[in-house]
Amino acid sequence: MVQQDRSYKEKKVISIGTVSELTGLTLRQIRYYEERKLIHPHRNERGTRKYSFADVETLMDIANKREEGVQTTEILKEMRTKEKKQITEAQARKKMLEGQLNAQFRHRR
């Protein structure tokens, strides 16, 4: 169920106008955050941006941090640090699972 929720949140199906309505951000602000590499909308063959629900959540987080006075460079740095941590944790989980599987199959031989 969690995996299904994640794929649902990651689908890029929302227009920039709808994102603006949902977040209260202007179109210019949303485009600016894209320029600063804080969000990565999908662009179709006509160049139309499409956002996911995860992008909307990210934009809300960005807006809140900006209201607190946090600069976009700091937000990007924090996002990259968080991304690296998630990758490291995923790699650790994978190694642990591989170790468990190897131990289980070696034990059965």
UniProtKB/TrEMBL annotation:
Residues 13-81 form the HTH merR-type domain. Transmembrane segments: none annotated. Pfam families: MerR_1. It comes from the Bacteria. Keywords: DNA-binding, Repressor, Transcription, Transcription regulation. This is MerR family transcriptional regulator.
